[in-house]
Amino acid sequence: MTVVQHQISQMLTMQDAMNSRVSQTWRDNRYEWYRAIWVECAEMLDHHGWKWWKHQEIDVAQVQLELVDIFHFGLSLRLMSGKEIEAIAAELAQELTKGSTESDFKLALEKLASAAVTDKSFDAVALADCMRLMGMDIDELFRQYVGKNTLNFFRQDHGYKEGNYIKVWHGEEDNEVLAQLVNSLDSQSDNFQADLYRALEEKYPG
Questions:
Q1: How far apart are CA 31 and CA 93, in angstroms?
Q2: Which of 38, 92, 180, 198 could disulfide-link to 113, CB 3.0 to 4.6 Å?
Q3: Residue 8 has pLDDT above 80, yes or no
Q4: C-alpha radius of gyration, the chain, whole number
Q5: 90 backbone φψ class: left, alpha, beta (φ>0; ψ -120 to 50)
């Protein structure tokens, strides 16, 4: 198994665990993951900018966050296929390292959205193009994905569903605290997720 396959396999396992945390029967619930993808695509386009009649700056960090959110939904969609995680990881590794020669971010994003709307599928090649055009490699995707997944678990463990969760920590939103912690820890460590969760606990004001 390659490094990329190993990373994707880890993310698939984490996604399955997160989905199961929300609902043990998530595979039977037939959630519309494809719809979540195209809605996120529209939100991402606003962060990128598309209005030719006004000046807009690309918010790269926010676009990258949206790409990570889309990957959550894409992984969930692929897990619905019923294939083994190793097989899905091998397919995604090939697609994410393949990419195309597309040089226009908006067109790559529309291809990603189109697959979700038309075929109810996740186009990982189009996602790879979007990542490349935003200066994001698979290592960065992995780092940000594990970060967001761990924060989602942390939120669930600290009353998110019940409405008791504190989102602003000492003047900063939890997402901002997360970004700082992710950059301060070793993402190549096998204990990355556990270390990150522990660091979040130390920072949490509750």
A1: 25
A2: 38
A3: yes
A4: 17
A5: alpha
